[in-house]
Amino acid sequence: MKKGVFLYLFSLISVLPAFAQMRTLTGTVTADSSGTPLPGVTIHLKGSTYRVATNPDGSYSMSVGGTPELQFSMVGYLSRQVKVGPDMTRLDIKLESATSRLSEVVVVGYGEQSQQYTTQAVSVVKAADFSNVPAVTPQQLLQGQVAGVSMTNSSGLLGNASLLRVRGTASITAGTQPLFIVDGVPLNDGTYNTAYGGGAALNPLLEINPDDIESITVLKDAAAAAIYGSRGSNGVILIATKKGGYRQKTQVKLDYATGWVSPTNKVDVMNGDEYVNFFNNYITKAIGESPITAPASFTDWPSLVSRTGRNSNYGLSASGGNEKTRFYIGGNYAKDESFVIGNNLQKLSGRINLEHTANRYLSLGVNFNTAYTNMDRINIESGAQAPYTRGLLNTPVTPAYTNNGQYANPTTNTLANVYLSTNKYYTRRNTGNAYAKINITDYLWLKTDWGMDLLETEERYRRSSKLSTGTNPATLGTAGRALWQDYKWLTTNSINFDKRFADVHQVSLLAAYSYETARYDDIKVTGTGFTSDQFLNVGSAATNTGSATGKAWGLESYIFRANYRFKDKYLIEGSLRRDGSSRFDAEKRYGNFWALSGGWIMSEEKFIRNLRFIDYMKLTASYGVTGNDRIGYYDYMGLYTSGTDAGYAG
After folding, report:
1. 116-150 burial string, b = 16+ CB within 10 Å, else e?
2. What is the C-alpha to C-alpha distance for residues 214 and 301, in angstroms, rounded to an integer?
3. What is the value of pTM for the model shown?
4. CB 228 within 8 A of CB 166
């Protein structure tokens, strides 16, 4: 009895500090521009269902503990997320009106526009919207941020390409990924056949550091994407990186973030006793197998193939400028561990962006990013042989180790396959552009832009002879090595006109010529039969085979766009692009892609302007034609092809 009383008192004392940490947090929420108190603002304690709302005078009061994160949201205003300090008891917040962003200039195809006057379906995510979002790849920044954009992981492989869909799937047999453009440079993407393990989907944004991004613009409808012609049918994602500011003091930023990942919603599998009982009572009767005897100890395979993975991210950047020059320099190192054994990712990247105004007529700039990645991906994409899958399929009576500590049945042992093999995947990527802008007058200028995307990928694979069946030395142990080079160069030259007439007519014109060329080469070598596992090179194998391929591609484009705005209320825009792609037959190589859109800013009319519940109201209509060249380099040369029926989930 005394022991029970002691345990009760100890438990009571243990929970007292948790209650003592709770405190009351008060504050007022006001409008950023006017300072007007905002009633009805929802304040959500992230990670819980606890919510409160502000009073008619904008004040609030809520109970918090520790250092929670609060989200402030209200219709017509931009949401804010704020982390509460450990001793903070008052927090006043200002919310920015959603309409205040309408006057911001956003990146669109081959230029910039005021978001207020765009007539197309364009969504913009600013750096402030994802400044607190932990992300390894830029795609993760879009998750839940843009209406009409869905994202799913193509596999559990770290760094693998996420499946992004802008307003659904636009093709059954051709590519369905959107076109990714970073600072005006379209990025290479696709799927490479690896030396071992099947195809590896290339993530076109893996080498881009999310902390370097200033904004992400999604062109969602045909009118917005038509200016990218034969590559616009799946939508276009424009990424603008940070540039620094003119007359800005140098700012240095150091970031470090770490976290842990472990499997959730684990599959409920039978334990050892349950499996033995199930096998002896049901399987033996169903297929005539002999009963099994429970071993001295069972094997928990799901626990052996999973772990608590840790991810770490280090970032250092500097930005600033004077009257004529602005700059941004950033570096990043990221290390990511999956919760599945055999899958790790390391990434090192650096960026430099410079812009210099030589005089009133000439400005020059350069954007350059270099990155290196190192990935372990043993059997991750090998279907039933993937470690986590095998961990669920292996029975608890199947041992992982022998009595002397060796791997039991190494040829079929999941742990042996992981720890007696290596499968390294490396990428080296240099992406950037250099540009010059010549101002002829205040409203007429020329711009020339030269860009590149140079991607080198390497795979190294080695499988121990202990994992081979048979005793023939010529078949013991395998190795493979593959090298890919995917190089792209492009140039875009444009003339631009933007002028206002009689204070009511705004006219903007663009005419441009663009040319892209790309070269793809790969070399793959595999070897079988090693006298020792100490020999790592493919050349040491008894038998080796190799293959090499090369491909080339080109795209020539003529681009035109016209914008007209009357009294800042009535809008019309048209674009035309003529693309010539080497992926198509010579007789059908060129195609025309055009769009027409119009808009009416109704909130500028007198009969709506006085309605207090309407801040901004715009009616738009658009029509556009886009294409999809995501096919093979030389598919047009084929006469026939065979395959399974294409299904369509419509």
Report:
1. bbbbbbbbbbbbebbeeeebbbbbebbbebbeebe
2. 45
3. 0.80
4. no
Domain-embedded: residue 61: yes
Domain enclosing residue 57, as ranges: 1-96
Is the Cβ–Cβ distance between 455 and 208 less than 8 Å?
no
CA 241 to CA 431: how far, in whole Å? 12
- A 10 A CB-CB count for 422 gives 16
How many domains does the chain divide into?
1
Report DSSP letters for 44-99, one per residue: EETTSS-EEE--TTSEEEEEEESS-EEEEE-TTB--EEEEPPTT--B--EEE-BGG
Residue 332: beta bridge partners?
315, 349
- pLDDT tens-place string over residues 350-365: 999 999 999 999 999 9
Residue 304's alpha-carbon distances to 76, 300, 390, 416, in angstroms, are: 51, 7, 11, 12
**Pairwise CA distance, residues 240 & 353, whole Å:** 11
Structural domain includes residue 35: yes
Classify the C-alpha dihedral 373-374-380-381 as positive or negative: positive
Report CA 612 to chain centroid distance, whole Å.
40
Secondary structure (DSSP) of 618-629: EEEEEEE-----
Question: What is the longest distance spanned by two Cα atoms in the chain?
Answer: 95
DSSP state letters, 595-606 = EEEEEEEGGGSH
Cβ atoms within 10 Å of 639's Cβ, excluding its own: 4
Residue 593: strand, helix, or coil:
strand
Relative to beta strand 444-463, strand 478-501 is antiparallel
CATH at residue 5: 2.60.40.1120
Q: Is residue 581 part of a domain?
A: no
Is 62 domain-assigned? Answer: yes
Average confidence (pLDDT) per 10 residues, the chain, 650 residues: 38 38 89 81 86 90 89 79 86 78 76 89 86 78 83 75 79 80 88 57 84 93 94 92 92 92 84 89 83 87 91 94 95 93 93 95 97 84 73 88 89 86 90 97 96 93 79 73 93 96 95 96 87 78 86 96 95 97 90 96 87 86 92 76 49
The gap between the terminal CA atoms of the chain, to the nearest Å, is 68
